[in-house]
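Project standup — Tuesday

K.O.: blocked on the structure for the chain from last sprint. Re-posting the sequence here as requested.
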Amino acid sequence: MSRLDAMIRPPAVAGRFYPGDADELRRTIDELLADASGSATPTKALIVPHAGYVYSGPIAANAYASVKSRAASIHRVVLLGPAHRVDLEGLAVPSSAAFHTPLGDVPIDRALIDRVRDLDQVVVSDEAHREEHSLEVQLPFLQRLLPSFTLLPVVVGKVSPAAVAELLERVWGGDETLIVISSDLSHYHDYAEANAIDQATATWIVTSERPGLDHRRACGASCIDGLIELERRRPGRFERELIDLRNSGDTAGSRDQVVGYGAFAFHEGTSAC
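H.V.: unblocked you, prediction finished:
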């Protein structure tokens, strides 16, 4: 193994959460995006689910369709997702040079990592990234959607909304930067109960003026809270939009115990900078 190969994170859930064959993966994503309808408003940030594509793929595609019109102008993606596999304090960035999927390598944006590395809440942890699916499942969508981009992947552990907001503020950038928050919604309620919980959560996400999302209602609550906290610090308001709200009972599987999925777009207000 070369030194470069050792610095590339291999896929952990290819062949399980999404197709492991490159041609099949391309077809799957292209079909999902062809059927998708996103926001018509220029979008700065997205909340996207992260389950297996058979479950949450159509909802994720509707989120990503919101940036189709400006895909050529996006050259950086800041991707935040919750830690599922490790007990993590703070925000973890990798030492890797790239993340690999069946569609190829996604280069890590070392300049953005250098921009946040001095923050007390940021740690370098390849262990946090090694088996984490919440970030990985977003990459093939981004690879098919964007002509070329670098990635700042951040696994979010136990951390305050202010700490997440501080990182986001440093890497917010302009039109060249897309922010992606990876989060599912409620877990393992029956279909009717999940619908009620997720509708209330969706209303909270699009209307709340301060952080405080219940972690039992969204596994990426810390990431979402950080985005909302950042809005409180900035001179303009976000226009928040619910694009899609469904669960695994709508897409695949039984309705006895479902997982909720939401697609949301955040648009910068005219006075935001």
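K.O.: great, moving the ticket to review. The mean pLDDT is 95. Residues 3-268 form a domain with the Protocatechuate 4,5-dioxygenase; Chain B fold (CATH 3.40.830.10).
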